[in-house]
Amino acid sequence: MNAKKIWDSYKFPLLLLAGIFTGAVIGIIFGEKAKVLAPLGDIFLNLMFTIVVPMVYVSITTAVGNMVNMKRLGKILGSLVCTFVVAGAFAAVLVLIVVNIWPPAANTAISMGSSEMAEASSISEMIVGALTVDDFSGLMSRSNMLPIIVFAIMSGFAVAKCGGEDCWAGKLLNSLNNIIMLMVDMIMKLAPIGLGAYFANLVGEFGPKLIGDYGRTMLVYYPMCAVYVLIFFPLYSYFAAGTLGIKRMLKHIFNPAVTAFATQSSVATLPVNMDACKKIGVPEDISNIVLPMGATMHMYGSVLSAITKIAFLFGVFQMPYTGAGTYAMSVVVAILSAFVLSGAPGGGLVGEMLIVSLFGFPAEAFPLIATIGFLVDPAATCLNASGDTIASMIIARLVEGKDWLEKRMAGGELEA
């Protein structure tokens, strides 16, 4: 492959990486002065967040409304749950092995200041709050992604009952879906500048902490994420569609991965994920359902980071991190904390309060893992969001059969 073909294939991710690299250099050189660029990054993120609620609602409603075969929808949702649970279990096993070999809090001397912690909600309150809102206006906020998804699925069923894509509502939704994706394309043209500015501010603010008392945790977590990507992503892709699946994944995974790393938001990465799945060849009725749900529920990186934080606190408070009960509780809490995460940057604070509360750590533990959360969030979100793309490929295989991608390629539906 010559330089021109490489540029044509990877032009946009290379521009994104160039923007982020430039922003990181600016952040290192100018430190907190790099905050002057924050408005450029905020403008880009605000545009992405503005489009994401109508995009999620319209894409899911359209996918369900167009689906004549409701058995297919059931198969998609069943495959989605299985994929998310199994992938989360693999991530949990990996991180438990790693934190026992390389404890993240070893030789760490952190002074613990006092911090007031909000009262934790009960499990029932969290479930109700996660799935529903008490007013229609709550459906217009990106902080309520699961209620939006629930409402969109219900709307899709109603549209399907009224005639699907052949009724006037179905035609309107399909047209709106096309319009929204064109708007997403317009916004993404600003990504190299917006992400560069956002990353400059991020590095300028948190850069010094990388070499402080949290350095060992970073040295444990980031290589672990790299190992997960290098081993599990190709394995998942091979299961999804063989060697061709690996090739398609490698060609199109960079845009969502880079966008997620820089924005630290699975929700902001949703539009990019939609485009990546389309180019890979995942059927749109699958990706339009899996990706929005994955942005809230499917958290490889969050499971890895949650257990790393738990092991870190055990070390800081000089408690032995051993025993099947402790490990089982860690996995459950990791999945719960991932489930309640908001799609917004810093949304892990809710999960971190859950960790502190359920394990009975003192309030002083919260600022400790909150700091770790901010430092590991780029890699965690990168795994979460790019993992959604690969999960869509797996679900396509489970729904359509082993040779789903070969059939689409043979039918001329995709670019080589």
UniProtKB/TrEMBL annotation:
Membrane-topology annotation of the record:
Multi-pass membrane protein
List the subcellular locations. Cell membrane
Task: Set out the biological process GO terms recorded for this chain's protein.
Answer: dicarboxylic acid transport
Arranged from A to Z, the UniProt key words for this protein are:
Cell membrane, Membrane, Transmembrane, Transmembrane helix, Transport
The entry lists its GO molecular-function terms as: symporter activity
Membrane-crossing residues?
12-31, 43-64, 76-102, 145-164, 176-200, 220-241, 299-318, 324-341, 353-376
Q: Secretion signal: which residues?
A: none
Give the matching InterPro entries. Answer: Na-dicarboxylate_symporter, Na:dicarbo_symporter_sf
Taxonomic superkingdom: Bacteria
Name this polypeptide is given? Dicarboxylate/amino acid:cation symporter
Q: Which organism is it from?
A: Schaedlerella arabinosiphila
